[in-house]
Amino acid sequence: PAIGLSAYLLEKKFPNEPIAILWSDHLVKNDAAFREMLRLAEKQVSSKEANFVFITQKPRFANQNLGWIELGEKVGGESNEALYNFQRLCYRPKLEEAEAFFADKKYVWNLGYFVTTPSYLTSLFSQYVPDMANKLSTIQEAYGTDSFEKVLSENYGELEKISFDDAILVKLGAAGMQVISADLGWSDVGAWDALKEA
Fold first, then answer.
1. Is 154 exposed, middle or buried (CB count within 10 Å of its CB: 0-12, 13-18, 19+)?
2. What phi and psi values does residue 165 have, to the nearest 5 degrees?
3. 90 exposure class (CB count in 10 Å sphere: 0-12, 13-18, 19+)
4. What is the pLDDT of residues 59-96, one digit of tens each?
5. Mean pLDDT over residues 13-19, rounded?
6. Mean pLDDT within 52-65
7. What is the 3-state secondary structure (H, E, C) of the chain?
8. CA-based nearest residue to 190, from 91, 63, 2, 70
9. Other C-beta atoms within 10 Å of 76: how many?
10. Residue 196: pLDDT above 80?
11. What's the whole-number average pLDDT of the chain?
12. Mean pLDDT of 146-172
């Protein structure tokens, strides 16, 4: 719902402007590489080479607490980061799956970071979670009016409590999707093993 609300409000003023969705409670040690990945993702979306670009981390171990993305064909990129077509996402695999993904080398960690446009994001909500999309559209219509706070409070709390991964990402096909992979020195320090490693 938080990503949806952001997308619908931004769409009203900046429908086709590239935006990045990022989480604030992660550790990124290689911030120079991270900025380069964001620039490349923005370029791909602005030029319409992709509708949606995942920014990912090369895996360091068989992590069960994350989503894993299967990489398709390599389509370009500089020496530090590589650009691939997207195949599929597996959210929080079982240990055996995670170990197989890690050994395969065609899988990367999904960080929940991506670049797209508000209008493309809202189209995904309409396609995959239409009830949520209808309520978000109602909020969007009120945005910028005197009734916004009232409409927001009446509708937002009614939205289904579901992760973006489960609502949208695991349902995505490969068309228009790309993946940038590099070593960001990334860690989600919310788990004890991740904290120890970090």
1. middle
2. -60, -50
3. middle
4. 988 888 888 999 999 987 555 568 999 998 888 889 99
5. 96
6. 91
7. CHHHHHHHHHHHHCCCCCEEECCCCCEECCHHHHHHHHHHHHHHHHCCCCCEEEEEECCCCCCCCCEEEEEEEEEECCCCCEEEEEEEEEECCCHHHHHHHHHHCCEEEEEEEEEECHHHHHHHHHHHCHHHHHHHHHHHHHCCCCCHHHHHHHHHHHCCCCCHHHHCHHHCCCCCEEEEEECCCEECCCCHHHHHHC
8. 63
9. 11
10. yes
11. 92
12. 93
Considering only CA atoms, which of 69, 57, 89, 74 is closest in space to residue 188? 57
158 pLDDT band, cuts 50/70/90, is very high
* Interstrand relation of 52-57 and 19-21 (parallel, antiparallel or unpaired): unpaired
Tokens in use for 182? 């590099």
The amino acid occupying position 107 is Y
User: 91 and 114 in contact (C-beta within 8 Å)?
Assistant: no
Per-residue model confidence (pLDDT) at position 157: 94
* Residue 116 token pair: 């797209």
Cα–Cα dist 24/20, whole Å: 12
